[in-house]
Amino acid sequence: MNTPAAAPTEETVEEVLRGQLSRALGGRRGMVEAAVPTILFTLTWLVTKELRLALTVSLAAAVTLLAVRLVQRSTIQFCVNALFGIGIGWLFVTMSARGGGDVNDQALAYFLPGIIYNGGYAVVLAVTCLIGWPLIGFMVGSVTGDATAWHQDRQIVKVCTRLTWLLALPCVIRVAAQLPVWLAGKSGALEPELAVALLGVLKIAMGWPVQLAALAAMVWLLARNRTPVEPSQD
Q1: Is residue 174 part of a domain?
Q2: Which long-range CB contacts under 8 A does 184-192 form with residues at least 24 apart?
Q3: Res 1: pLDDT
Q4: Given 28, 41, 204, 210, which residue has the most CB atoms within 10 angstroms?
């Protein structure tokens, strides 16, 4: 016997998505927690040229932010995300070192996972739109209690498709800005130290500011419509 899904407290799809997007981005604090380790890594490396020290400082910052979250008993998701990013960056640095890369190559390697992630994420989001199953639609499904019922409403699909494209846009912008700098630093067309500095600045500048701009566009789009949420009836 199936238990009826709990009725959502939000009355419209737009209200559901505003709440879900706000939680997904982590608010101002979550964005700061994502930016601090990158700021410290970039500054430490530029000042000392000690890659291991830069990695250690960024890791220590992320662990400290995590400890504060634990003490306050608040969500640790965004601190864990930062730690995961540092760990992947450290792995790429290690792989570069084992492949014979010098300290500049290793510093550049730290930024490569972020570029790959944004590129891959943008492709996934674009594909979900192109096949008619925009990823944000599943946010609606998570609230209504039916993961796919939203797809039967063309208006909801249309709104979710636009929002998913907007969600993909920051990723595309980051790759378009960072990849040429990374390639230029790797090839020697740009001084590696300058490339690392630029990548650090771009990663921070195109982190929460670009995400906030995308969120503002989403909020504007959501404010234009009021599509009723239909809970699934089992």
Answers
A1: yes
A2: 185/104, 185/108, 186/105, 186/108, 192/104, 192/105, 192/107, 192/108
A3: 42
A4: 41
